[in-house]
Structure formats: C-alpha cells, structure tokens
Design brief:
The structure is a single chain. This protein is an alpha+beta fold. It folds into 2 domains: 4-164, Jelly Rolls (Sandwich), CATH 2.60.120.10; 176-286, Homeodomain-like (Arc Repressor Mutant, subunit A, Orthogonal Bundle). The chain contains 12 helices and 10 strands. Helix 2 packs across helix 5 (142-159), helix 7 crosses helix 8 and helix 9 crosses helix 11. The longest helix is centred in the middle third of the chain and has 18 residues, at 142-159. The radius of gyration is 20 Å and the shape is globular. This is Helix-turn-helix domain-containing protein. Pfam families: AraC_binding (PF02311), HTH_18 (PF12833).
Length: 287
C-alpha cells in the first residue's frame, strides 16, 4: 500500500512546527503517510509500535525517534497512560541544508541530521535525559522553541545513544521526480492559500495540463485537489482561532474563503464543527 502524502503546514515566520498531545487530546491520525519534512518525535511513556518503511518495531515505556523526510511511516503515539505526552517536531530540509550549514559550530548537528536518513531510535538513557527539554515546548514561544530544538539536537549528536533502523532505505514506491513535483504543489498551496489557488497556474508551473495535473494529484494523494486546498485552508483558520483571533469574517478572508456559508460548510466538514461552535468551545468564557 502506498502511503498518503501529508502536507506539513508551517505557520508564517517559523522554521518548525511543534505539536504536543496529551492523552485526552484529539489528534486526527494521518495513518500510513509520507512528507518531505524531518520529524523528531518524543513519546513519554506507554507501549506502542513504530511502523517505518518495511519495518515494525515495538517499544515500551515511550520512545524517541528521528527520521528524515520522504520516509513512509505510521503514527507513533499511544494512549496507555493518562499522563502520557507526545511531542512532534517537524521542519523542512532547507532549514538544515541552507540555513544551518553556514555555521561551522553546527557541524555535529549536521552529521546527526544526515544520519536521520537511516531513522534513529534513541536508547532509554537518552530518552530520559531530554525529557524536560521536550516537556518545555508546551510553554515556550517560537524563538525559544528554535533555540531549544538546536540544544536538543546538539545533545543527541554528542550522546551517541541511538540505533539506526536501516542501513539503506529503498524508496521504490515513488520516483524522485514525483516527490519533488508534489513538494512544489504543497509549497504553492502554502504560499497562495490566502488568495486564489489556480489549477491552471500550478499545472503550468509543473509542465502539465490541468487534466494531467488533476490525475497526478489524485494518484499521489487519493484526494481531489480542491478538497485538499479546502482542508488546508480550514486548518489555517484553526491556527488563527487558536492564536487569539475571534472574528470569523476576518479569519475567513485570511484563509482564502470569500463566502461565509461556504466557509462554515467546509470548516464543519474538515474540523467537525462550525467556526462559531469552535470558538465557543475554545473561548467559552468570552462567548
């Protein structure tokens, strides 16, 4: 079974995406999926199974795993214990390949990042050593998160307490050109979601006709392009609401919707409730 492509939605003016999940939090499973971003995942406790590439690796009492982009995998977390916590950190390849490489002080981190192509599973001692660092991501701002991530990666690069899951990971399911083409589509959506997203424009950029573009996107994601864009836009709306913006019309326009009824319908379809219901549940005291 081919994995679904997942588009990682980075907020404006940030280099990484951080999601934290407690036991009772709702986390929509991506299932068997793939994305071009690096992923560092910390699971505090509980028992589960890592499904990465062709391998299935059980873990007990939590896990810490680091994998490069374009490696198919399943979800990592579990809900065994009430106090469990899962922190997922994702960042684009340009973060390391273009930005950090100019600093020789980050050479050890660069080596670790390169090794993540083999998928690194860290030992229990390392898992425990960095627990407080990961825990702090819930309370710190975006600048502090970047600094904290670099600190964690430096600790991991110096500790050496990991086991590579693969010597080499074959990527026979997808050709390199297909992955690069899909990355370009995701980048186009990310940059233009607040305005007009045009099949004609993006298909022309890729050297495809609109019909061949639609077939390619459906083949790679098992979804229609318009459905994908609408879900992306509603996830952006959730970001704005969570960031303190409570004017539905303003958020609607910022996400590329122009019709309140259509916005409400799409939001309910992909987020499970209307925008006003979402705001009431999140800011109950203010509504």
């Amino acid at each position: 079974m081919k994995p679904m492509f997942e588009s990682i939605n980075l907020s404006a003016n940030t280099s990484l995406k951080v999601e934290t999940y407690e036991n009772g939090d709702y986390c929509e499973s991506a299932g068997w999926h793939i994305h071009p971003e690096y992923e560092l995942v910390y699971v505090k406790n509980g028992t589960g199974q890592l499904n990465i590439g062709p391998k299935k690796i059980p873990y007990t009492n939590g896990v810490l795993v680091f994998l490069a982009g374009n490696i198919p995998h399943g979800d990592f977390g579990n809900k065994d214990h009430d106090d469990n916590l899962e922190i997922v950190i994702q960042f684009g390849k340009d973060f390391f390949e273009e930005k950090l490489k100019v600093f020789p002080e980050f050479s050890e981190i660069q080596k670790l990042v390169k090794k993540s192509e083999q998928v690194l599973i860290f030992d229990k001692q390392t898992h425990q050593m960095v627990w407080k660092d990961f825990q702090s991501f819930r309370e710190i701002d975006s600048t502090q998160r970047l600094i904290k991530l670099l600190s964690i990666l430096f600790q991991l690069s110096k500790g050496g307490g990991y086991t590579p899951l693969f010597e080499n990971l074959p990527m026979d399911n997808y050709r390199k050109e297909e992955i690069e083409r899909l990355e370009e589509i995701f980048e186009y959506i990310n940059k233009n979601h607040d305005g007009k997203v045009s099949v004609e424009v993006i298909s022309s950029q890729l050297g495809l006709t609109p019909n061949s573009f639609s077939r390619f996107f459906k083949k790679m994601t098992q979804r229609r392009f318009l459905d994908f864009v609408n879900e992306f836009r509603t996830s952006k709306a959730v970001e704005f609401f969570n960031g303190g913006e409570t004017t539905i019309t303003g958020v609607m326009y910022q996400c590329g919707f122009n019709d309140p009824s259509y916005f409400s319908k799409q939001f309910k379809k992909y987020q499970g409730c209307t925008p006003s219901q979402y705001l009431k549940s999140r800011y109950q005291a203010d509504f």
